[in-house]
Amino acid sequence: MSHPGMPTSFTLHLAGEAGDSIPFLAQQLAQLMAQRLPTLFLHADPPAEIRAPPGALSAALSCQLRCGSQISSCPEPVHLLLALRPSALQTLTVELAPGALVLLHAERFAPPWPSLPADCRLFPVPITSWNREALAPCMLSQPECDRCESFFLLGLLAWMLDLPLDPVQHWLRTTFAHKPEMARATELALIAGRNQAQNADLPRWELPLAEGPAAGSYRLLSGNEALTLGLLSAAQLTTRRVLLAAAAAPATAELLAACHEVACDRLVPMPCPDEAAAIAAALGAAYGGQLGVALCSGPGLSIQSELLGLAVLTQLPVVVIQVQHGGPALALPRQVEQADLAAAVHGRTGVAPLVVLAQATPAEGVELIVQAARLAIEGRTPVILLSDVHLLQLSELVPIPDWPFSPCPAPSVWVDSMPPEDARPYCVPGTPGGEHSLGPLENEAGTTKVCFDPSNHARQSAARINRVQRLRAPAATWHVEGDRSANPSATLLLLGWGSTFGPLREACFILRARGHAVAHAHLRQVHPLSSEVLDGLQGYRAVLVVELNEGQLATHLRSLRGLSVRSYTRLGGAPFRVAEILAAAEQVLFELQEQTA
Amino acid sequence: MSYHLPLQPKDFASAAEPRWCPGCGDYSILAQLKKVLAGLNLPREQFVFLSGAGCAARLPHYLRTYSFQTLPGRGLAVAWGLKKVRPDLHVWVVGGEGDLLLRGANHLLQIIQHNIDIKILFINNEILGQSRGQASPTSRTGTRTPTTPSGVSHAQLRPAVVALSADCRFVARTLDVDIDHLAATLDRAARYEGTAFVEVYQNCNIFNPYAFAYVSDQAVRLDNVLYVEHGQALIFGKDRDRTIIWRGPRPEVVPCAEVPSEQRCLHDETLEDPTYALSLARWTQSESANSLPEVLGVLRAVPSVSSALSSCALSSFTASSSERMAPTTETLPHVASVLAKRWQQGAIVVPPLDQEHEHALPLL
Fold first, then answer.
1. Is A445 exposed, middle or buried (0-12, 13-18, 19+ CB in 10 A)?
2. Structural element, H or E, at residue B131
3. In this complex, is the C-beta atom of A367 within 8 Å of any C-beta atom belonging to chain B?
4. What are the structural domains, with CATH classification, of chain B?
5. Which chain A residues are Cβ-neighbours of B69 within 8 angstroms?
6. Cβ–Cβ below 8 Å for B363 and A219
7. Chain B contacts in chain A segment 56-85 (CB below 8 A)
8. Which residues of chain B have a CB within 8 Å of the CB of A217?
């Protein structure tokens, strides 16, 4: 860990069941950690069942907080685990880091205590009785006392991590201003937790040293929230109304609910009976001169396929947000997989090219939605934005920007920029003199007149391909992560797309700190790829494409210019860990070295 | 291209030449529709006609309005999205039973349930014409088609019954060759605020000829059809000598002479409860003596509750296009304020290094 530039991190994992206030505890701790470290991730893993019986494995839920410097991956191996229920421990999907501490809610576990790796230490603590004892002077009923337990835990963990408590105290006094007895009890529990940890001589964990965040306003931004803010931003930046149409599905429920909360003059959410209705409604909005956005997940994209073809043919601006999860069908509705790339790029009948963007980090959702909307309007094309269930549940600490508060940019900043030879006449219903007929049949070039002439179809198909090839989001530019000048001689390029960004970036930092010549590039516009990107890929001795599928991007790249790339893939529903990527990259580096020798 | 209101039916004809089989009932529907549109005295550009697939789905191409033929069954859902962001437009969906009751059934029920201000012109010929005469959901039991060589085995689905079962508040049924009735019915639908569902019996003279002869043939139709009108007694027959009475739950045909005029049942299209309209919609002519008649006319037209989406009142078509853009969003918050507020949700304030937290307090 002595290398300069080596990531340093601390990972706290809170595991329990519904009713243990785990998300609340995580949010409060995040607030405290944010005072100390500028890089912070929070990953929530909701329970498998909505109302599982207490104690059942399907009732387990957890949150992981990871902070440090040069880090970007979450979840990762755990340094401090707080296990409030046996079920939470049994369903734990992350491993313990060497030297990890495990804090057990002793009253809920029956000895013998669970066995741990040799270098990990276990601390069973009687949280409930400690908390009740501490609150005895408050004369509260036992259930009321127990409700304060999360504040006791907060105090205890804050002491172990040497975090300040005053932001929580301030929060308590504001929140319970009208309930002074609650304010007193919760604050007492908070302080008692801290004192008890000190008295019991619980071990302390030193958070990594890093320059603290600059003074200002920050927030934890999840993928769900980022996409919501992105839709609002797109609606603000264009003069059009944005229709968000979506069918009910568990993976998108939170996002759709958030969009309903922010419904306004420009953002119109619309619940739909199914994904076909959603994309059809989006198409209707686009036909009406507005912007249609359809939200779907998993197999929903397949249902939308036929209408995406119609959108390509009729040149209507629609954006599809596809939340990927393990498939086929509904195989793993809550677990991540990046296996919808091929479907997004190729999954339509006929020659129906469109643009595919991919979100790499939760916060990036804001910007990418705006880019997708702009591209759809300017290029009069459907755009698919690939996200995934992991990104939606992952939050990162970001500064609150100034721009949403500045005056709205001048309207009509995005105009239809189709060259006239490609474009059909485009007239929005309601425009006098523009009445015309549009349909699903091939048109004569530059008109909406039906034409079945084979040579016309060949020309029109080529025009559709060219039109999409020409479209470039800012996300399409070739960009190597980090400071390229610091590493001009990289031999190995780690290439990814979507939510593998975090572990890839962190692995790249570690490899560089270990002295390897490695670079990392991440594609945001996955299709079509610019020649700049394809040229960029050729500047390395080896390109390792890392993705959570069976090699869809690698196959796609090999089909373009016959690029020779290596592929590292995994399926299984869990995000990559940094260690996996390190091992794969070091194997390639070893092979390159062998070749040189 | 400027024009002056009022428009004539010919002003609604597009440059495309209608291409249906000679003798197809769709010609008549198109002609009456143009007449009705002209009579509404609205700007031509305010009309949008959507369709899916099939013979009926060609109709929008022959109108000089905005028209969009989509994919099988999807015209309804596209119309809904359009209406959601452009409530100023007068939106129609035209389709046959293959379009609206097969792939489109799901969308049809949803639009009715939400009472979206869309006019649905359901052209029922009891056969899938464009699919070369295959059986449709409205085909009668026993009908022989290429896909049902031994005859249709399923029960017949009746579009007006489907619409009423979903509680559609405006449901009418009419006939392609009864042009005055057709025009009057379409006109009522066009002026209704909310989902208006019009089923038109249409003769496919190629694949299902004479399917509706019992209601169109001059020789027999008056004996088989009951034309309903709001407030008028349920009387039918060539000599207008038969009426309907309910004995317990069962409707029966009885000679008028047996029922004093003040005891005759008067048609009420405004009933909130759709049971009566449903009963009427289900009746059909049969071989049995005292067969109930086929009912044509406006079965149900409940005065519209002012739904947020049915703001496309004809009277509102006076303001300029831009003023009409946002009738449903006036009361909604502005996007900029919502965006700014949302960003601030769960804000974490980090004070400058040299400053204690703003509200640092001594521990208890």
1. middle
2. none
3. no
4. 9-316 (3.40.50.970)
5. 437-440
6. no
7. none
8. 344, 347-350
**DSSP SS3 for B11:** helix
Domain ranges of chain A: 8-199, 221-402, 477-596
CB contact A436 to B (< 8 Å): yes
Assess if CATH 3.40.920.10 describes domain A8-199. Answer: yes
Average predicted confidence (pLDDT) for chain B: 90
Query: CA of A278 to nearest chain B CA: how many angstroms apart?
Result: 8
- CA A241 to chain B, closest CA, distance in angstroms equals 7
Residue of higher predicted confidence among A528 and B358: A528
Reported pTM? 0.94
CATH topology of domain A221-402: Rossmann fold (3.40.50)
The 10s digit of each residue's pLDDT in B239-271 is: 999 999 999 889 999 999 999 999 999 999 999
Would you state the pLDDT for residue B2? 77
Our CA-based measurement puts residue A16 at a distance from the nearest CA of chain B, in whole angstroms, of 23
- pLDDT average, residue stretch B178-182: 98
Mean pLDDT for the stretch of residues B73-93: 97
Q: Which residues of A touch B83 (CB under 8 A)?
A: 284
Which of B44, B50, B74, B357 should we substitute to test contact with A (largest number of A Cβ atoms within 10 Å)? B74
* Residue A47 pLDDT: 86
How many beta-carbon pairs under 8 angstroms link A with B? 235
Tell me the per-residue pLDDT of A445-455, one tens digit each, with 9 for 90 and over: 888 888 999 99
Query: Rounded to an integer, what is the distance from CA B221 to the centroid of its chain?
Result: 24
The answer to whether A221-402 and A477-596 have equal CATH topology is yes
- pLDDT over 80 at A405, yes or no: no
Q: Is A444 on the interface with B (CB under 8 A)?
A: no
Other C-beta atoms lying within 10 Å of the C-beta of residue A195: 17
Instruction: Tell me what pLDDT residue A38 has.
Output: 87
- What share of chain A has pLDDT > 70, as a percent? 95
Give mean pLDDT, residues A242-263. Answer: 96
Pair A508, A588: CB distance under 8 Å? no
pLDDT 10s digits, B315-324: 333 333 333 3
Contact of A154 with A193, CB cutoff 8 Å: yes
Residue of A nearest to B326 (CA): A265
Angstrom distance (rounded) from CA B291 to CA B252 = 8
CATH architecture of A477-596: 3-Layer(aba) Sandwich (3.40)
